[in-house]
Amino acid sequence: MKKYVLTENTIEFFGITLYQIKAVRSFGDVGEGELGGWIAKEENLDQSGNAWVSGDARVYGNAWVSGDAWVSGDARVYGNAWVSGDARVYGDARVYGDAWVYGDARVSGDAWVYGDARVYGDARVESSRHIVWFSNVGSENGTLTAFTSKTGEIEVTRGCCFGTIDEFEQKVKTRHSDSKYAEEYLILVEYIRLRFRDVKVTADGDNS
């Protein structure tokens, strides 16, 4: 059973027609008949779960919003990006490319998350200073992403490895020993610590 439909209200956005959505039944915090944000097609927003797009938020391209995720405010999600779980993307945030935002993550303010970045757990990314990532890293040429958590800690993810920067550093030393991959990772660890020096997390909102 559908939870929303595309209305006849449309806008043109960079040559793409976006449709305002309308809830046809109540679910989560959304009431029947409530108007939402703008999407290009039903494939942008899951018809199951409590996922929703509201305000002036816009989701298009091959982007996918699912689970209990919300995209709101003036946020934009596009490209091949995924927003799922209990994630929230709001404010003037942008999530695009092949980026994934999921779990209890929050991306807000003027933050941009893109490329192959992976943001999850209790991440709190409020600006470009709260996140950094590196592609083609390590023996598998993967992507390493670092971001701030709601407690203000620096958290790092690389493949199945996820934890604080201290935990990540210890795992690198244990797994890679004195190899060139260890040297590569440890240089990035020092850069991440330098980049995030004095960066604070100020908000922990759900929707805006």
UniProtKB/TrEMBL annotation:
InterPro entries: B_solenoid_ydck_rpt, Trimer_LpxA-like_sf. Pfam families: B_solenoid_ydck (PF18836). SUPFAM superfamilies: Trimeric LpxA-like enzymes. This is Polymer-forming cytoskeletal protein. It comes from Brevibacillus ruminantium. The lineage of its organism: Bacteria, Bacillati, Bacillota, Bacilli, Bacillales.
